[in-house]
Amino acid sequence: MSKEIGIMVCGHGSRDDEAVAEFAAVAAGLRERLPQYPVESGFLEFARPVIRDGLEKLRDGGVRRILAVPGMLFAAGHAKNDIPSVLNTWAAQYPEIEVQYGRELGIDVKMMRAAGDRVAEALAAAGEAVPRHETLLAVVGRGASDPDANANAAKVTRMLWEGMGFGWAETCYSGVTFPLVEPGLEHAVRLGFRRIVVFPYFLFTGRLVKRIYEHTDIVAARHRDVEFVKAPYLNDHPLVLETFAERVTEILEGANLMNCQLCKYREQVLGFEAEVGLPQQSHHHHVEGIGTDSGHAHGHDHHHHDHDHDHGQGHDHGHAHGHHHPYPHADHPLGPATLDKLKAGKGGE
After folding, report:
1. Does the pLDDT at position 259 exceed 90?
2. Which domain, by its residues, includes 147?
3. Is 141 domain-assigned?
4. What is the pLDDT of residues 109-165, one digit of tens each?
5. What's the average model confidence in pLDDT over 270-289?
6. How many whole angstroms separate alpha carbon 297 and alpha carbon 189?
7. Which of 167, 170, 197 lies closest to 183 in space, CA to CA?
8. Given pLDDT bands bounded at 50, 70 and 90, which one contains residue 334?
9. H or E element at residue 200
10. DSSP string, 203-234
11. Residue 221 falls within a domain, yes or no?
């Protein structure tokens, strides 16, 4: 094993213990694929170890060059700003150690094949009573205040739609942007297809994925003449693990390209012109390493600020903390405002 070079997998973090376990499984899978390097992992918020813990472990093991990769599908605020901020802050304390940052998983042939496999699994389980041309595919992205990341989710939708021959496809999001899952599926129902496959384009489970399935059930209960099929999320699909390994190799080979062409922090993207040049900083310090739900009897709800990003605020985190520019479409009727109404109807969450 080469001790001079180490790999750091940087995750977002979740209060859901299942999500944390699934992330650990991905890190373990990367160790199997790159046995010549020590591999550590850490999170921006909630779960432990936090990112700096993993960095310290690599340093203590003698590593002098750290290849850090974001454990994220697309490059939005977390991959573009929060993780680099944590890495740069840590690296400034240890100038003798080189920290190089890789790119997100992104739109990749292997990722598309993994996504296609998950959708195909759901179709196989549902049976072939409904042909694909009478089936609508609804891909659910995470949702971000970064239009570049949201556009990538729409591209995934089109590639699966065209590649698998569905009759139609729609894209919706779990939070922050629009349309959210419930209004998105209500719109899809009106298109008249006999079957709707709901596919969360997520790496891991967590509150958001569970809520996607919950909202699918809510819409399905209103429209019993339409068959709803819930596809599994990506998880540790072998092709996902291979893509992670490729991102590490890209750093070593000098072919590491983060997508900055349509980054709202560096270019004047339509509707987000005011955010060019905002400082690069992490806004996760207040929830870094505080633990998962199983370690908190009170659930750490924060009420106004749901940290698994299923809140109604129009940006990556509630603006109560003041670190991010307000999302310009926070009050869109098919976006976070819809979720606020749903929570109000339930008496809050």
Report:
1. no
2. 109-230
3. yes
4. 999 999 999 999 999 999 999 999 999 999 999 999 999 999 999 999 999 999 999
5. 58
6. 40
7. 170
8. confident
9. strand 195-200
10. SS-SHHHHHHHHHHHHHHHH-TTSEEEE----
11. yes
| Token pair for 111 | 């990722």
Q: How far is CA 178 from CA 111, 263, 325, in A?
A: 24, 19, 18
* H or E element in which residue 262 lies: none
Assess contact for 143 and 152: CB atoms under 8 A. no
Report helix, strand or coil for 345.
helix
Cα–Cα distance, 56 to 151 (Å, whole number) = 36
Helix (H) or strand (E) holding 16: none
What number of helices (H) and strands (E) belong to the chain? 10, 8
Give kind and range of the element (H or E) at residue 179: none
Q: 20 in a domain, yes or no?
A: no
CATH number of the domain enclosing 196 = 3.40.50.1400
Return the amino acid letter for 324: H
Q: Which of these, 69, 123, 119, lies nearest to 233 by C-alpha position?
A: 119
State how far the Cα of 212 lies from the Cα of 197, in Å rounded to an integer: 12
CA distance 307 to 251: 31
In whole angstroms, give the CA distance from residue 2 to residue 6. Answer: 8
Is the per-residue pLDDT at 281 higher than 90?
A: no
Band (pLDDT 50/70/90 cuts) for residue 331 is: confident
Would the CA dihedral through 349, 151, 157, 10 be positive or negative?
Answer: negative
DSSP state of 133: G
* pTM: predicted TM-score of the whole model, two decimal places: 0.78
pLDDT band at 23 (very low <50, low <70, confident <90, very high): very high
Mean pLDDT estimate for the chain:
84
Q: Which helix (H) or strand (E) holds 342?
A: helix 336-345
d(Cα 212, Cα 142) in Å, to the nearest integer? 10
Contact 153, 171 (CB under 8 A): yes
Total domain count, the chain:
1
For residue 268, what pLDDT band results from cuts at 50, 70 and 90? low
Q: Which residues pair with 68 in a beta bridge?
A: 8, 101
Mean pLDDT value of segment 23-42: 96
In a domain, 300, yes or no: no
